[in-house]
Design goal:
ATP Synthase, domain 1, Single alpha-helices involved in coiled-coils or other helix-helix interfaces, 8-stranded mixed β-sheet
């Protein structure tokens, strides 16, 4: 029997997943992070990207738009700003968000812009589009 750990994935709006998994791959801000049962303790920030976890009966992918992950030897908690299930990803909406962010960075009075917030939005849109292409989902 494979070793397992408990995973909780929570967004600002709801609990997305709580259950037993064998492996986790998360988009850490310093690079992708693989977590197996009995991993050393750590806390890391997450960037926009794909959160994958492997269960006994298959693998699940979610899009996270940043957050924090806490790893304990047998429990992992992901507190994500936003979580979107793969089937709910919308390439057209992501492309529109990317265009809005790029347009915002192009023009207005610099005093009126929150460059960091716009850059986060742009990065999230790009990561969503990349994930849609990687999982093979076509434009709606």
């Amino acid at each position: 029997m494979a070793m397992t750990m408990h995973l909780d994935v929570v967004s600002a709006e709801e609990s997305i997943f709580s259950g037993i998994v064998e492996e986790i791959l998360a988009p850490g801000t310093m690079g992708d992070l693989g977590v197996m049962p009995r991993h050393s303790q750590l806390i890391t920030t997450l960037k926009a990207g794909e959160l994958r976890y492997k269960m006994k009966d298959g693998e699940v992918s979610l899009f996270v738009a940043g957050g924090i992950m806490e790893v304990q030897p047998s429990i992992v908690t992901v507190l994500a700003d936003t979580v979107v299930r793969v089937e709910d990803l919308d390439e057209k909406a992501a492309q529109e968000a990317q265009k809005r962010a790029e347009d915002a960075l192009q023009g207005k009075d610099p005093a009126d812009l929150d460059y960091e917030a716009i850059q986060v939005e742009l990065d999230a849109a790009k990561a969503q589009i990349e994930m849609i292409h990687r999982v093979g989902k076509s434009l709606r």
